[in-house]
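Side project, low priority. Logging it here so it doesn't get lost.
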Amino acid sequence: MAYDLIVIGTGPGGYVCAIKAAQLGMKVAVVEKRATFGGTCLNIGCIPSKALLHASEVFAHASHGMADLGVEVSGTTLNLDKMMGHKDATVKANVDGVAFLFKKNKIESFIGTGKIVSAGKVSVTADDGTVQELETKNIVIATGSDVAGIPGVAVEIDEKVIVSSTGGIALDKVPGHMVVVGGGVIGLELGSVWSRLGAKVTVVEYLDSILGGMDGEVSKQFQRILAKQGIEFNLGAKVTGVEKTESGAKVTFEPVKGGDAQTIDADVVLVATGRKPFTAGLGLEEAGVVLDNRGRVEINGHYATNVAGIYAIGDVVKGPMLAHKAEDEGVALAEILAGQHGHVNYDVIPGVVYTQPEVASVGKTEEELKAAGVSYKVGKFPFTANGRARAMQATDGFVKVLADKDTDRVLGVHIIGLGAGELIHEAAVLMEFGGSSEDLGRTCHAHPTMSEAVKEAALATFFKPIHM
């Protein structure tokens, strides 16, 4: 049977592309190597980690965050099995939801390993070794990414003692000491989970700052907040070895700028140094599909590879490895294949770190604007001056708005604070429409809300804030 479209991979990019294409009238099939849909994100990434982040935040708040509110609780205990059960139930609800959406949209699914035989042909190898070949007008590569490991260091990840994010969401007990290699989003999120549950957490990061690509001022304040929570940092440190020992594991690192190496012992080591495109076994070389020097599938502005009828989206192509970026690419590509004008605005892709407090960002950082020689102005407002934040004991952090000095068009917004991942979207909508800081500052915001801090930061950008 011939299809209009076959999508290989059912992570956020793949399943959204498939559904959108089906909604636009195409006959669609998906190929998925896992027994469940949703890819890394829904099965072992975004969704389960958020379940643990929320559960661990509730545990920490119940343990030592309620007395000042007049709620006196004693003897809180952790039932890690139940917490993991909550995570697993959350995952099941989400992956079952994708399966339902496939049925609703009459999308056929094939469980097995997909391989591109040639333009218009995909083979699927099931777990029992049986192979079937499918024909299609178009193929979308949406196979996502995999754990990158540590550059130049051989590390044997067993997902028990030396773990990736996959093992980091499935530990059977709280480690006494967890060493996190990598101070990026994944490392800080999972490190904060286990820190809240009682582990000592030490982060070892190659760069001189955490969250490398984020605004420098945000990074510095966020590190101070995490340090106050008990997380320790070794920055500017190059890891040269990670190995198991009789009692757990040890991590050896040395200063990037030169100096003596040091070794620290750990019960668990979380390797969180980023991810790499997953293209192994897809048959791309045989099909003639070109990869770039970082192993990503090369595409043009319409997500087309160099081989006619083969496209790629998400983590296997250039750009930030974010589920929502992949989803938007999936929608845009489906529209393009339907003869429409699909488009993604890569200048307005929010990024969120789901710690407590959260960190959220959209658009340019101050460092990027300086490097590009753009004249800009800055407005900031702290949550310590926000009434709702005081009422909820959530005064950590601030909102920072960056706007063009001449036109006042907002170029970037950065937030540290409770619910920052929700607050960032009014900035994203504003920027999508080319709005100014004055547009935002003159928009009525309900009182009292955390979002008033966004308004005040906008007021501070084009003139002066009211409540400072």
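Brief comment: DSSP finds 14 helices and 22 strands in the chain.
Revisit when time allows.
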